[in-house]
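We include this case.
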Amino acid sequence: MAQFNLPENSKVLKGKYFKDITGSINIKKINIYRWNPDQNENPKIDTFEVDLTTCGNKVLDILNKIKNEIDPSLTYRRSCAHGVCGSCAMNVDGINTLSCMKSHKEINGEINIYPLPHLKVIKDLVADLSTLYRQYESIEPWLKTKEKKNWSAEINQSKENRKKLDGLYECIMCACCSTSCPSYWWNEEKYLGPAVLLQAYRWIMDSRDEERKERLKTVADKLKLYGCHTIMNCTNSCPKGLNPAKAISSLKKMLATN
């Protein structure tokens, strides 16, 4: 059996333990991945005892409480706190999700919080999404027309055509789906991944766009699109309940039939 040894500086060590000082009986243990690029140290798992009596219902509420009351050095992204911006995406209890939507009451026992998997870590729970954003830019996610139009006027769309965008436009690019995909882990630089392919399909299906053929050519690549092996992790992990796997399948079907 093959054995793999991780470099010494990549091994996750046991970190600090922050014991509750309130005396509350409603305590939850929170284990959080910590890594600071400014310190020449291995990543660690810090454990916090958090009093849930004075805490909101979401995992993000716990993180905010830890940062505000226990350890101000804890680093993570968050903005809207309503599942709209996608900033607070992370791995909670082994599942990629939005911490502002995930209820800690659904989790039995200790809560384990890590950054999104298989991405470079900038600090603590902040993952580097540079590659994802570059790929998103490559599909040109804006309305394209072949001739100049009067942009002060509306481009009308029927209710039937507008309905075709349901389940596509709601994507907030949180990266939960792409970072749950083994194909994306293995070929991040070449395979576009479910989040970007869902967005590509969204613009291809928009009846107001006049560059469908060109857009299809852009994704018609052995690795850009066909790196997908229909594992379905993407659909299972989407916190908005979308179906990236179905969008990818539809793209493949369009290329095979057009």
User: Anything to note?
Assistant: Residues 8-127 form a domain with the Ubiquitin-like (UB roll) fold (CATH 3.10.20.30). The first strand starts at residue 13 and ends at 18.
